[in-house]
Design a protein that fits this description.
109 residues; alpha+beta; four-stranded antiparallel beta sheet; 24% strand
Length: 109
């Protein structure tokens, strides 16, 4: 196969799509999250690439009482693991989402 510009563009497009298919999904919740604590899922708007989720996850895990966070830019959601017995409110989660420069939506679960 001769590598011309059109074939090169197609290869780049396929690579980008493959990266997008490896996103985190709510079904990818770690087992230790399921064992204890509370799992919450929130809508998040403004994530439009695979690199967006890191800053959001960092903002959320910096909150006292949040043991983990997994963002999914494709589904426009973030899954948050709140430690058992913690009283962190949805307002705190929404503020952390805003600090990460995204727009919080509704709590799904």
């Amino acid at each position: 196969m001769r590598l011309n510009f059109q074939n090169f563009r197609l290869m780049i497009l396929l690579a980008v799509l493959a990266m997008g298919c490896s996103h985190n999904t709510p079904s990818a919740i770690p087992e230790e999250w399921k064992a204890s604590g509370e799992i919450r899922i929130y809508e998040v708007f403004g994530m439009d690439c695979p690199g967006c989720h890191g800053g959001l996850e960092n903002q959320l895990t910096a909150l006292d009482g949040v043991d983990g966070a997994k963002a999914d830019w494709v589904q426009k959601q973030v899954t948050v693991w709140v430690s058992q017995g913690n009283l962190i409110g949805d307002e705190d989660i929404h503020e952390a989402i805003k600090r990460a420069n995204f727009t919080p939506g509704d709590r799904i679960k």
